[in-house]
Amino acid sequence: ELNSTSSTQSVRVGETIIINATITNRGEADDRQDIKFNYRGASRSRSVALSGNESTTVEFTYEARARDIGKNRSAVVASDDDTETIRFDVFKPAVFDVEVNKTASVTEVSNGEAIQLVATVENRGTRSGTQNVTLAVAGNVVNTSADLTLAGGETTQVNLAYRTTGDNIGEEVPIMVSSLNDSARITASVTPVRVS
User: Fold this and answer.
1) For the CA atoms of 178, 90, 72, 94, what is the dihedral angle to 10 degrees?
2) Are 178 and 94 in contact (CB under 8 A)?
3) Which pTM was predicted?
């Protein structure tokens, strides 16, 4: 008799799925069988010898990959006499990609005017997540869109602005918009105000 359970019902890509199979010899005689694990072509096998009415537990592991992402995935554990199907979910955690919309952004300004950035933020994971999106000018964070929450696969636009000062004057002022996972870099042009 074969009873199998997964101690990890939901795992993310890169984590290990652990399958515990309890094997019981319901007969009176000693017996040896190969206990086999199979999931999407990945096979494992353990040889188990048991006396009559004896039980033991065998552990199988599998590292979840990107191709496994989805709900209700099924693996099979089988002996010569019995088969068990184990179900589990594999997900990709929230990953926020950032891209600056250069057409919609204002990056050529006079000193004292505001640099205005429009960024597209996409959660490429399959789970919801919350992150901050920051605007840095010349390496200094000057604005933050805090606690941005996106469902898996969701996309939104974020508007970030910064009013320039005399310290920012230059033709190539480095600008960076960042999430926890990604960043996008562009340059801004800040010209001095001419006094007539």
Assistant:
1) -10
2) no
3) 0.72
Dihedral sign computed on CA atoms, order 126, 88, 69, 96 = positive
- Positive or negative torsion for Cα 160, 165, 168, 172: positive
Q: How far apart are CA 130 and CA 139, in angstroms?
A: 23
Q: What's the token pair of residue 62?
A: 């599998």
pLDDT tens column, 26-84: 888 999 999 999 998 889 999 999 999 999 999 999 999 999 999 889 999 999 989 99
According to the model, what pLDDT value does residue 141 have? 94
Classify 195 as helix, strand or coil: coil
Distance CA 155, CA 149 (A): 10
Q: Which residue has the tokens 């990953």?
A: 95
The closest alpha carbon to 38, from 55, 19, 22, 12, belongs to 19
CA angle 23, 84, 3 (to 5 degrees): 35
Written as six digits, the tokens of 177 are 């918009």
Angle CA 185–186–187, to nearest 5: 135
d(CA 13, CA 61): 14
Residue 5's pLDDT band, with cuts at 50, 70 and 90, is: low
Give the model's pLDDT for residue 7: 57
**Cα–Cα distance, 87 to 74 (Å, whole number):** 4
